Amino acid sequence: MEMSLRVLGDKHPHTLASMANLASTYRNQGRWKEAEELEVQVMETRKRALRDKHLDTLTSMANLASTYRNQGRWKEAEELEVQVMETSLRVLRDEHPHTLASMANLASTYRNQGQWKEAEELEVQVMETSLRVLGDEHPDTLTSIANLASTYRNQGRWKEAEELEVQLTWHRRTGIKGANLASTYRNQGRWKEAEELEVQVMETRKRVLGDGHPSTLTSMNNLAHTWKGEGYAQTAIALMRECVQLRKQVLGPQHPYTMSSLSTLNSWQLEKASISG
User: Which keywords fit this entry according to its UniProt record (predicted)?
Assistant: First the structure.
């Protein structure tokens, strides 16, 4: 990147591509501020040079939105994602992979803000288009089904969630089916069924993605909740404590997921202390 800046200048496409690649590396390492700084530069330069409708500009906007989303900065992410989706629909049309990705990203941001209806509306469109264009076994289609099931689950619509989740083929690499179906079982109080799936998912993610990957930490958080529901309070507290420590390191102490896990841990510890006392 530094050589490209020196030789080609900060507006050259190769320089911008190298900056975007470095930002992606920072993002994958959870170095959000460093990623953001580069992504803002890339986005603003591409907007000036290529205009808003260019695919490279839309990609840079989506990357910055992803960095905001990973920090729990939902409103900033939403603002960019709405622009990306609307432009993609207008320029690329609704069946283009970039358009579907932009709709899925915005739906995820809505879901994280508890805007279930807005999320559901987009997720239904993404799922139906993916089924039609990509087929029912494509990874993107399976992800879209899982996302819609998650939105149903968060609204307490357990049967609709379960119907979608049992359609999913087991995805060994990330445990998509197992994680979501386990969550549905957990919310129905079907603890043993949830635990069986969640242990598999957590172990698979640890092996494939690593102990500190955000998806691994989500599975730890979920398994801790299941153990608590089964009455294994001490074991649940120990796992949640580990999850909090790792989320602080990986996501940062102010991230909503870190704060949620910490709040749960404090609540469980107070409950245990009051029972012991």
Answer: Coiled coil
pLDDT computed for residue 260 by the predictor: 94
Say which residues have a Cβ less than 8 Å from residue 87's Cβ, sequence separation at least 6: 52, 53, 58
Whole-angstrom CA distances from 47 to 11, 57, 77, 80, 85 are 11, 6, 17, 13, 16
Give residue 10's pLDDT: 59
Question: Identity (one letter) of the amino acid at 58?
Answer: L
H helices of the chain, in order, are: 2-8, 13-28, 32-50, 55-70, 74-91, 97-112, 116-133, 139-154, 158-165, 176-187, 191-208, 214-230, 233-250, 256-276
Residue 85: the pLDDT is 98
pLDDT the model gives residue 4: 53
Query: What is the model's pLDDT at position 135?
Result: 86
Model pLDDT, residue 14 = 78
Cα–Cα distance measured from residue 202 to residue 149, given in angstroms and rounded to the nearest whole number: 20
Q: Is the full-model pTM beyond 0.70?
A: no
Query: How many Å apart are CA 169 and CA 181, to the nearest integer?
Result: 12
Q: How far apart are the first and last CA of the chain?
A: 60
The torsion angle over the Cα atoms of residues 54, 59, 61 and 64, rounded to 10 degrees, is -160
Say if residue 277's pLDDT is above 80. Answer: no
110 contacts 150 by C-beta, under 8 angstroms: no
pLDDT for position 196: 85
12: left (phi over 0), alpha (psi -120 to 50) or beta: beta
Q: Of 9 and 54, which is predicted with more confidence?
A: 54
